[in-house]
Amino acid sequence: MNDIQDGLAERRWGMVIDLDRCTGCGACVAACKVENNIPEVDPSEAKIGRVMHWIRIAKHEEKDPKHGDIRTYPALCYHCGNAPCTMVCPVHATYIGIDGIVGQTYSRCIGCRYCMAACPYTVKVFNWFEPKWSPELRDHTNPDVSLRYAGVVEKCTFCSHRLLAARDDAACAGRDVQEQDYQPACAEVCPAQAIAFGDLKDSDSTVARSARSPRAHYLLEELGTHPAVIYLNEREHRV
Amino acid sequence: MSDTLMTPQDIDADLYRSVEQNGPGFYYVAAGFIAIIVFGLYRYYLQVKYGLGVTGMNQPVTWGFYIINFVFFIGISHAGTLISAILRLTQAEWRRPITRMAEVITAIVLVIGGLHPILDLGRPERMFNLLKWGRLQSPLLWDVVSITAYFAASTVYLYLPLIPDIARLRDRGTRPQWLYKLISWNYQGTPRQQEVLHKAMNVLMIVVIPVAVSVHTVISYIFAMTLEAGWHSTIFGPYFVAGAIFSGIAALMVVMIVFRRVYHLERYLKQIHFSNLSRLMLVMAIFWFYLTFSEYLTGFFGSEPAELDVMMFKLTGPYAVPFWLMIFFNFVLPVALLSRERTRTIPVILIVSIGICIGMWIERLIIVVPSLTIPYVDYPYHPYWPSLTEISLFAAALSAFCLGFMIFARFFPLISVWEIEEGRRNAVRETSERIASYLPDPPPSDDLSEFSSPGGV
After folding, report:
1. Residues of B in contact with A124 (CB under 8 A)
2. Is there a domain that residue B439 lies in?
3. CATH number of the domain residue B115 falls in
4. Is residue B147 part of a domain?
5. Is the alpha carbon torsion for A51, B121, B231, B70 positive or negative?
6. A198 has which bridge partners?
7. What pTM did the predictor assign?
């Protein structure tokens, strides 16, 4: 067990997504794309499975027509406390950071894609080609987020560049970073306020209280990955 | 005893044919293979230039031909050393004309297979991060360690029994003399040298067996250590090792039959060798089926949804044709044709062996791709099809294997000459002595007065 679970780490950033509020509008996807300089992919490439998203709207179709509905839910990196991707990485390019955020070091990644194969949630994406942006976007990339290049794996970082900035601001003000200092782009932009973000270790935080709700559940909980993303769902069928 | 000089060498002159008599045919065939390799390298250059997007891989199928071929080629490499070591260790006398070829296959295929993960890297220039930042907790590092060890052990294991033959080539004045002089280490066949050589070979043949087993076990761990449905299985280690030996024997048979024909080695590689090896292959076919059956039955009976999805995807879905072809090639065909002495003829064995090579390649495909295609979560379905780059690099790898084998045969005998001579000289006597030692001791008989009762008449 690592320190994320045994309580050594002071914080564990986590996210609660209320699926009863989520409309599947995709604002989080767009915000993430812009915030994190995620490259554009040609439609022809996207069609054969090279699409690049750090958060996507997953579609769940019930096989049994009796239940015949399609449910959607935002799927992103779950920042597992017991992350299968970090365990298989041969070069320490993906790792669990001190605040529970699973990071990816682009400059060290050798592009073996073992982490992608090992991730049971299939949330990692690969730079199959040199990334490209339309000219307008290329000139307005987020300077806080490094641009990736061909041959490395990338994924959601919970907008950790915002955490770094918030930490600096807090340090200047002579205090610790607070929950309200830091929100990922998807949580900030969600028009239905379905995405809450905060410290799961602080038992009074919104996310920690929601995580205790009877509506709460984890995706693929049975695998024992201890995700930091929690779904809330009133309905009988989860996710 | 200087066995390099005493034996009349003309008896085994056929064995030097590949080294000493070379027509232009060699160069034509070699040129053909080199052309295929160059084309493959050109496609690889494009892959490095533009990115792995030139392959057919995608999300979620992040591994394709390169990893399949990696597992396949490393599997073939078990032919060699393992079979040759086991046959030597068990003192199977019929091994003598076989071991060398088996060892050569290992050495060549191991290089080719070992390069495949590098083909698969998005950033091959960072390969040395594996040494600089390597995490020994990652199964990929286990692979690096165990394949390196296997390569070291099996090349030495190829080289040691080659030394007396190199000395023979040196003494025959075969060119290039400088090469043979250099790498024969002044071997003269003195009793002391023979003793050291035998001792070293005995140590290596024992060391090489656990190393070989570890190699394919660890390769299976790459898959088995993840949580993917269809991969996360405890049987994978032995399953991969058994499959590796199985495909290794088949590849060895193909090579033996082809080179027997090309270099006229019919006097050495006789029906009995193929018959014995094909019996071994038949046993492995049945064992392979048993493991496959166990693997699928446990998945099916447990009916875990994710596991069952992947399984049905293989058995009845888009991978049904390759799946049942695999069963046909790996089980039905060998059992049908190799069980009877009458059908165990060399052409039939060749067909069955090629079938097993194909079947075992499909097995690797069936393991690698479907589990990735059907992930746990809801993900758009993107089937995997290899691109021209992957196909041409596969062709290049096969050509590199053939070319490597040809070049080896161009410089060294494909059948161990000294072991053949040794066999001719000693095997019958040694074997009869050995068999005599198995026989029950004579009874402490009463009617032999000198052994029995002192008071007897």
Report:
1. 59
2. no
3. 1.20.1630.10
4. yes
5. positive
6. A14
7. 0.92
Judged by a CB distance cut-off of 8 A, whether residue A60 touches chain B is yes
pLDDT above 90 for B247: yes
Of A50, A75, A128, the CB nearest to B377: A75
Contact check, Cβ <8 Å, B140/A114: yes
B225 → closest Cβ in A88, A128, A220 = A88
Nearest to A197 by CA among A171, A228, A223: A228
CA nearest to B139 within chain A:
A88
- Residue B99 located in a structural domain: yes
H or E segment to which residue B114 belongs: helix B99-119
Instruction: Determine how many CB atoms are found less than 10 A away from the CB of residue B432.
Output: 10
User: Which ipTM value was assigned to this complex?
Assistant: 0.91
Residues of A in contact with B58 (CB under 8 A): 48-50, 128
Torsion of CA A160, A162, A165, A168, to 10 degrees: -60
Between the alpha carbon of residue B89 and those of residues B83, B105, B206, B330, B434, the distances in Å are: 10, 19, 8, 27, 14
d(CA A44, CA B114): 33
Q: For chain A, which domains are there?
A: 3-232 (3.30.70.20)
Residues B143, B217: Cα–Cα separation, whole Å: 9
CA distance linking residue B99 with residue B82, whole number of Å: 10
φ, ψ for residue A197, nearest 5 deg: -135, 140
pLDDT tens for each residue of B397-419? 999 999 999 999 999 999 999 99
Residues of A whose CB is below 8 A from B390: none
Question: Which tens digits make up the pLDDT trace of B137-151?
Answer: 999 999 999 999 999
Q: How far is residue A232 from each of residues A11, A235, B72, measured CA to CA in Å? A: 22, 9, 45
Q: Identify whether the C-beta of residue B41 lies closer than 8 Å to the C-beta of residue B403.
A: no
Q: Is residue B453 part of a domain?
A: no
Tens of pLDDT, residue by residue over A9-26, are 788 999 999 999 999 999
Burial of B455 (0-12, 13-18, 19+ CB in 10 A): exposed
Which residue carries 């090629």 as its tokens?
B354
Paired tokens of A176 = 């610790």
A84-96 as b/e: b if 16+ CB within 10 A: bbbbbbbbbbbbb
Token pair, residue B336, equals 């049908």
A-B contacts (CB, under 8 Å): 146
Question: Looking at CA atoms only, how far is residue A47 from chain B in angstroms?
Answer: 8
Number of domains comprising chain B: 1
Return d(Cα A24, Cα B208) in angstroms, integer.
Answer: 58
SS3 B450: coil
- Our measurement of the distance from residue B310's CA atom to the centroid of its chain's CA atoms, rounded to an integer in Å, reads 30
For B153, the domain range is 25-126+136-423
